[in-house]
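Q: You know discrete backbone vocabularies at least as well as I do. I have my own habits and do not want them to colour yours. No explanation is needed for now; the record alone will do.
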Amino acid sequence: MRLNCRNENFESVSLIVDKLSKSLNKNTTIPNEISFVVNKEECFGLLGTNGSGKTTTFRLLTGDLNADSGNAYLGSDADLLTNKRQFYSRVGYCPQNDALLDGLTGRQTLVFFGRIRGVERKALEKFVSNICVLFELKAILDKRVTTYSGGNRRKLSLAVALIGRPLVLLLDEPTTGVDPDSRLSIWCLLRDLMVCQKVSIVLTSHNMTECEALCSRLAIVSKGVLKAIGFTAHLKSFYAKGFDLIVKVKSDSNEVIVDEVKRRMNDTFGDNCVKKYDNFGVIYYNLQSVDSRLSQIFQSLNQLKLELHFEDYFVSNASLERAFLHMIATQDTSPPDE
């Protein structure tokens, strides 16, 4: 059953995607009747493995591809079937690979794309003046793009996506290839944009920390099919069962000692404690038992630390990454009602 999008209350909703599909060949449809709603001033995460249909969905929403069926709405007067021009004017897109011309300066880049967008000269001048302050690009705005660092190139790409005051920003891996400081800076910018400019964001990323930092809700896509959707914390608590344990042995430990630590961990926590990997004396486990109490886990680890060659240990709730992997691997992934 299709969403009744014409009667939807767009005072609280920015984007509705309704059963959007694209046939890539006779046997492959990606995305396959994907549907989701993005609220105003929300960052919505679209997650999936490579080839799951995230970028193809963005290409459908930006007009790079035509959908075979389904529709998308940005307000009651703009959709992909009957009013494409109005729809595309309300979308800003930052692709995974920067679509920048290295021979231009930052200022020339913004003016160039602003003219393509049809922004009037005075409005464009004001936009460039404001955005270079907001994105901290003023000092390099008149330098050629080829001299920009990875972080500043991503900032400029984001600035281009904001030309024309779009209602929705589509961000494909927005912090790929940037250093940690630039990544944090971009995250702060995106939060400010949602609050100050009332922009909604649809984000794809392989960085689970980024998703937790920015997204209030997530949709998990596998092979073009929506497998789960919900609030980030809700999905994490429902699918990421158990705890992540990290054990660090002392630097002078040999293989015999490390093997003894592994054996004792298995004896203490049983088959539910699965070793994920170990590296340079740090051993990572996932304790999949949902009945274990945190106090019992700390007590057991503290006892092992006293008896063995532990330097330290760390315990946390299972990660969003584990929830994601569980959802991708599980066929029936309907979460409980929120």
The first helix runs from residue 54 to 62. Confidence is low (pLDDT under 50) at residues 331-338.
